[in-house]
Amino acid sequence: MMLAEAGVRLGVIVDRLSPETGELFPGTSDLVMHLDTDTLLSRYDAITVERDTMPDNALVNSLMASPKAAIERTMAVLPDRLTQKQLLDELGIATSPWLPGTALAQAREQWGNVVIKARRGGYDGRGTHFLRTGDAQPDADENTIVEATINFRRELSLLAARSSHGDMAFYPLVENVHRDGILNVTRAPAQQLAPQHQARAENMARALLEKLDYHGIMAIELFDCSDELLVNEISPRVHNSGHWTQEGATISQFEMHLRALTGLPLKPPEAKGFAAMRNLLGVAYDTGWLHRPGYVHWYAKEVRPGRKMGHVNFIAPDADTLARQMAAWRDVTET
Amino acid sequence: MMLAEAGVRLGVIVDRLSPETGELFPGTSDLVMHLDTDTLLSRYDAITVERDTMPDNALVNSLMASPKAAIERTMAVLPDRLTQKQLLDELGIATSPWLPGTALAQAREQWGNVVIKARRGGYDGRGTHFLRTGDAQPDADENTIVEATINFRRELSLLAARSSHGDMAFYPLVENVHRDGILNVTRAPAQQLAPQHQARAENMARALLEKLDYHGIMAIELFDCSDELLVNEISPRVHNSGHWTQEGATISQFEMHLRALTGLPLKPPEAKGFAAMRNLLGVAYDTGWLHRPGYVHWYAKEVRPGRKMGHVNFIAPDADTLARQMAAWRDVTET
Description:
By secondary structure, the first copy, chain A, is of the alpha+beta class.
């Protein structure tokens, strides 16, 4: 929806397709159409993906095999944490130490506390399992990887874009605060940042984007270990930690993604001030929110516990004003 | 399109209907669907109009007769300049002196230079005809009105909104600069404004919105005669002179219109700085524009001389920076 929204100013029309059902949602509407695969392939100039994994069916396979879906090489590597880690190692990009799930015993011996992660499909903390020294030993599982637990100061993320012409653009590093494994708040730009971190993160991104010949926005989650910066996870799509850019930057991540996919100029994005994004998790809509400070984005989805129902963006000229705006939302919590 | 774009953050879906052909364009898409009139009337919570006149056909008549189209009373009065003028007179709202087109001779005797305007369908300077003392006398025409020409300093406009709950919100007065009768540039807020003008314009708007029991955004074009403020024209819809609000105000006119139509809270809009909007008239798209300062909004329509092809919004912390940004676009003119 937010990509379709961002397309309007560019004169770029974005329709949405369910890869499971083949239902086509035109633009920002909830009306449904069905077009056959050939029509889909001829009608659109570019095909993009806004989730981490895709079903394996004839529709998806046809679309992904098209040169209009430039994401094929990326989808062959990144959705599997094992091949993602191998790529990071190959490029010499710092990441938390890891071993394949079959080497669980060796990993515990080497690092003590470890975290087991599903190779595929983990999202918002799902598929992640912490093991402390002394915990019972589960069966080694080739569908997982094992990582050393990391002592980090905080989680950061970088949004990077690369266009079909090879141009690149980077957003400032942001700080992410999670609640129960789900992103709760992003602050942008990240404050008290070690001076070398921005350039270091951009270099990591540059290597990844070029290696994958990637077009579009990529989000790179990083552990800030003060001196060190370790890649935690890479998402080849627009990302929740970039939602602040809608009002907080001169170009939103959604617009940047479309520019990159369609070969339009990228132009370096600038932060407009002190920004933050807060997710609205598992709450029902309250129209009274529209009186409050901040920019509400509501997804109009059915309420479910912990579900991302919408988000609020805050922009302020200074950190104190930002804190005051956010404080006006303190009472809004999942009931 | 820009209403559909603005609906996303509100969780409000906007589909677009051609009143001539009955083609339904879902959301921001160019895909076409057809729904019968009963389905249209049951699917949507509100029906709005984004042009000055509507064809007289069964589809339009059915939709406009629905209580969901709260604009019926307004459309019975405003699109006809004669009844519009009568309403202004009835409410005691200052406007340029006028007479029905049948009283042309009397008007010329009384005021000398006059302007003849078509009662219906005039737009962007079309249907307007200036008559100086000494010009040949055309036939009196009951489909026109005659106005005294006014010595004004500049044209201003006010955007005002009223919700289905009766709440109202007003934008700051803006200054409009035309070229060949077509809006070229809007500057917001208007500078060097007489201190009483904002309140005076809001009072005029309040009287009009309440009298018409109007829901949505209304644009009121005014002649700034230094001491006096005269209403020139009223448009019951989102308006080109309000496009600056997309990046220039905390709530865009498009979002405000949807809030007003759907009974959501209005919240007073604030200008974010010194803003301007420049129309892109009759020019072909140049992707290089995306490198320039300013926010390009491109409508992806077929190029025609003088046609509004898109617009650029500028926001700056001060007037000098704004002028510099706009100067970077000086070379872009219709060829």
